[in-house]
């Protein structure tokens, strides 16, 4: 076997020594860094130190989820009449998001929404309606992201009467068509930017309401493909840096539009897989969202679900990432003692990170298989030793398996009854 140059062996030995992890073979995969010190390299070193200290405390074990504490934390955001907790008032324009993140995370974590919470979701969203879709809060402009969040929160509420009352598919289609750009993408709001996130959000609500017409989808695949960067991941719009959030949006949008196994006819799946694989860092075990950025628990979903989608397309097998190490990062380092999950040690928990860390763990605890031709329906089997109190999550919609499917069926049957 070829021997690594001594300078590299010295480097690895120094890293092993620095982290006191002499017996961990995976340390050999540490990225090789040069000796040029920058603010970024110092921050990376400090973050590694903090995470390794956290991992060492649990000695190769994976902490279990403190579901009850997390559910109590999330309940704070689901009282229809209560004002936002003081430290979260800056999220007033993200109230639709807060409903989705909180209701969804409770369900993904294996908790149950109370009847009051289920009723409270449509009650709150009623005042956010604007131009047939939803704004981020009461009296705010309609936006693709808040509409996406509102639809998924409504799907999580299981309240079919509310779906029929608050959602009119014809109005949704009319609004979506108004925001279509000549390049095939969709703008997030009237006069707003066109990007792959807005495009994904609009395709999700169109797919849920069975309004994916040819007029709506014409040119969209080409637009999405144009957002793939030379790195392999996707940027927000053509020419931009690859980012895991946008990469997820691009792949999930494609899964809505084309048969999952034909995805490689439209984008470079191989380079995307290589870029996604490079997002898992050593020794942290977590995923980063961009090249040279720090690990963050929310990317457990953005990267994890992207890898599940890619695997649905190319059958690369269940070992595209180290599931145990990811679980150790999220569960040992990112559970806040008072409840909620956080980006990384030193950060405060919030509903966004709680939801996406939970969904990311769901990506890691199960092996997913596409059911049928498209990427809308999935089956899941649990991995060995998985915590099955966590629900498997649909990697296209980001809600527990069965939730989005039920809403799609509701609007499909409604349309058939109207014919
Ligand atoms: Zn994050």
Automatic annotation (TrEMBL):
GO cellular component terms, A-Z: protein farnesyltransferase complex
Reactions that this protein is recorded to catalyse: L-cysteinyl-[protein] + (2E,6E)-farnesyl diphosphate = S-(2E,6E)-farnesyl-L-cysteinyl-[protein] + diphosphate
Cofactor dependence: Zn(2+)
Ranges of residues in domain Prenyltransferase alpha-alpha toroid: 65-398
GO MF annotations in UniProt: protein farnesyltransferase activity; zinc ion binding
Cofactor binding comment, as recorded: Binds 1 zinc ion per subunit.
Keyword Transferase: yes
Keyword annotations of the record: Metal-binding, Prenyltransferase, Repeat, Transferase, Zinc
GO biological process: prenylation; protein maturation
This protein's record includes keyword Coiled coil: no
The enzyme's E.C. designation: 2.5.1.58
CDD domains assigned: FTase
Assembly and interaction partners: Heterodimer of an alpha and a beta subunit.
Family to which the UniProt record says this protein belongs: Belongs to the protein prenyltransferase subunit beta family.
Described purpose of this protein according to its UniProt entry: Catalyzes the transfer of a farnesyl moiety from farnesyl diphosphate to a cysteine at the fourth position from the C-terminus of several proteins. The beta subunit is responsible for peptide-binding.
Full protein name: Protein farnesyltransferase subunit beta
Species this protein is from: Yarrowia lipolytica (strain CLIB 122 / E 150) (Yeast)
């Amino acid at each position: 076997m070829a021997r690594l140059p001594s300078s590299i062996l010295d480097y690895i030995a120094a890293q092993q020594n620095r982290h006191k992890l002499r017996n961990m073979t995976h340390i050999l995969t540490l990225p090789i860094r040069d000796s040029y010190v920058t603010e970024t390299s110092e921050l990376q070193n400090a973050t590694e130190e903090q995470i390794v200290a956290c991992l060492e405390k649990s000695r190769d074990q994976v902490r279990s989820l403190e579901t009850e504490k997390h559910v109590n934390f999330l309940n704070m955001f689901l009282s229809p009449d209560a004002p936002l907790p003081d430290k979260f008032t800056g999220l007033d324009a993200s109230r639709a998001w807060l409903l989705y993140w909180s209701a969804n995370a409770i369900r993904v974590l294996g908790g149950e929404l109370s009847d009051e919470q289920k009723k409270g979701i449509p009650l709150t969203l009623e005042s956010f309606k604007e131009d047939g879709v939803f704004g981020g809060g009461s009296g705010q402009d309609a936006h693709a992201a808040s509409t996406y969040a509102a639809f998924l929160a409504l799907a999580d509420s299981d309240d079919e009467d509310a779906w029929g009352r608050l959602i009119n598919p014809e109005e949704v289609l009319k609004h979506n068509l108004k925001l279509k750009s000549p390049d095939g993408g969709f703008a997030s709001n009237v006069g707003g930017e066109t990007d792959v996130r807005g495009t994904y959000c609009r395709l999700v609500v169109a797919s849920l309401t069975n309004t994916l017409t040819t007029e709506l989808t014409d040119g969209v695949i080409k637009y999405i493909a144009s957002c793939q960067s030379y790195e392999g991941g996707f940027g927000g719009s053509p020419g931009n840096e690859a980012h895991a959030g946008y990469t997820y949006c691009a792949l999930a949008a494609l899964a809505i539009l084309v048969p999952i196994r034909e995805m490689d006819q439209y984008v470079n799946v191989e380079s995307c897989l290589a870029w996604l694989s490079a997002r898992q860092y050593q020794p942290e075990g977590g995923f980063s969202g961009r090249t040279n950025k720090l690990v963050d628990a929310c990317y457990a979903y953005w990267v994890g679900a992207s890898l599940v989608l890619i695997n649905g397309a190319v059958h690369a097998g269940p070992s595209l990432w180290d599931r145990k190490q990811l679980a150790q990062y999220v569960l040992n380092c990112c559970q806040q003692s008072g409840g909620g999950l956080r980006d990384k040690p030193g950060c405060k928990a919030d509903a966004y990170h709680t939801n996406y860390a939970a969904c990311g763990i769901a990506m890691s605890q199960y092996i997913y298989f596409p059911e049928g031709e498209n990427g809308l329906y999935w089956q899941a089997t649990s991995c060995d030793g998985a915590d099955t109190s966590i629900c498997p999550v649909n990697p296209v919609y980001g809600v527990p398996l069965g939730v989005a499917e039920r809403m799609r069926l509701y609007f499909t049957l409604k349309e058939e009854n109207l014919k």
